[in-house]
């Protein structure tokens, strides 16, 4: 079994600034970390490998500095890592990124499962995972909070919903995006760190993956960020306690002002 | 201060620091309050390979020395010396096997210890044998192909939680110090049980129990090394492990200074932060001097022990006594700097002060350490 984990280097959220010109994140001089959701995806992949056997390959599209994050992925249990990097990838939106990753994964070869974080904490779009699956023409399940079973290419997953969770049965190959509830990422191991220090990182350029120059980087990115704003907070919630009759009374009291 | 650590040593420190910050510190108050053994945190340490640090490479470890283990436990000590004690006492239980065990014995136990699957404890102390180890009453008698152990060990760290116990018992009382031997007793051996967990002033995350042997029968090959060499192995084990206790002291003191200094910067009295008052500054300065000098001594001692395994008693005793006395002083002063807040359980320094006291008592009281140092000086000048 081969599991691909897509990971992204993002600015540490402790220090976030916006570029007033472009309305995008200012990344210069900000410390980079592995996107926290991706850490959970990597952890889940390593746990699946430990339980069912197989291989975990972590892939990132990013600048050469992303090598540091790939070494962290090795120290946390990834068997192999791939850096998809080229100057021409710069400025990619989620459309161009999912195209680039699709081409890279096709180059890497067969896989059974792709794991991604639900979203990256910089752009917060949650589009690359589903976009990649769509381009690869495989099914995807987003916001997975638990992988219950993984036997003979069949998975039973729990997909987090606003009001509980769905239980989903699916077959490989597929793409899964995970939420933070799925696990607690491990601390790097000493053996892993020593391996990470020595590992030869596979590097793929735009030419290596056979990318169409018109589809990558800024030229391949139709997105324009027009405005950035914080979403309105959701309405308040109330939990009624007591026995059913008491709860109904409380609910009626709460609703009455709106009815009269 | 830069101690010029190697790349591997820095890796060990980074991993231990992350476990301390992410796993130990957020849980320490609850573990203390509930007297709860930190099983999950120890699993995290195992996954990070830290149980393999001092285990020889041929048995699945990293073949690290005293200094590597000192660096590890110093970090844990900064978080909670109860958790750090559980980790360190595992090696106290395993060192006799590393130092004196046969190849077969090492092959049987050490790979599981390195992988964190089995956990060790050391059974020396008894009701009437603490500082004076010659008062040991537990006996081991050979009966056919089995040793039969009888007696009770007291205040044994990791009791009830460990799977491997290195137990000191008298095999020939007439031979005095040469009549003691060490045996490996496993959890589940017939006639072996652990008493209830003791309630303690501090280090409540660590488990402390009696070990009870009632006609406990174990195979003949559980004897560690040769019969009658028990005390020698005990002394070597303690010489090797004491810098670890000293390092817990350095870490604990550092954790207390971190709390006190951060508080002093933020606490306003008479219109300014109290760190602006010389009385407070001087206390913090003395804490920092004590910690850095203790750290320097512990690191140098650990390196000396690695390089000169036959000459470790004095340096081991010196760093243990000094660093743990510093820890007691610094934690007490941290409470003082923080005043009423320091005395309250909402802040961690009251626990640190309670915890610190054990460092001056266990693995040989600091008075016994001074005896050792004094005797060595006496020899040197004879």
From TrEMBL, chain A:
SUPFAM superfamilies: Adenine nucleotide alpha hydrolases-like. PANTHER family: ELECTRON TRANSFER FLAVOPROTEIN BETA-SUBUNIT, PROTEIN FIXA. SMART domains: ETF. It comes from Desulforhopalus singaporensis. It comes from the Bacteria. This is Electron transfer flavoprotein beta subunit. Residues 22-213 form the Electron transfer flavoprotein alpha/beta-subunit N-terminal domain. Pfam families: ETF. GO terms for molecular function: electron transfer activity. Keywords: Electron transport, Transport.
Automatic annotation (TrEMBL), chain B:
Residues 121-216 form the Acyl-CoA oxidase/dehydrogenase middle domain. One of its GO terms (molecular function) is flavin adenine dinucleotide binding. Its EC number is 1.3.8.10. Keywords: FAD, Flavoprotein, Oxidoreductase. InterPro entries: Acyl-CoA_DH_CS (IPR006089), Acyl-CoA_Oxase/DH_mid-dom (IPR006091), Acyl-CoA_Oxase/DH_mid-dom_sf (IPR046373), AcylCo_DH-like_C (IPR036250), AcylCo_DH/oxidase_C (IPR009075), AcylCoA_DH/ox_N (IPR013786), AcylCoA_DH/ox_N_sf (IPR037069), AcylCoA_DH/oxidase_NM_dom_sf (IPR009100). Residues 6-117 form the Acyl-CoA dehydrogenase/oxidase N-terminal domain. Transmembrane segments: none annotated. SUPFAM superfamilies: Acyl-CoA dehydrogenase C-terminal domain-like (SSF47203), Acyl-CoA dehydrogenase NM domain-like (SSF56645). Its cofactor is FAD. Residues 228-376 form the Acyl-CoA dehydrogenase/oxidase C-terminal domain. Homotetramer. Belongs to the acyl-CoA dehydrogenase family. This is Cyclohex-1-ene-1-carbonyl-CoA dehydrogenase. It comes from Desulforhopalus singaporensis.
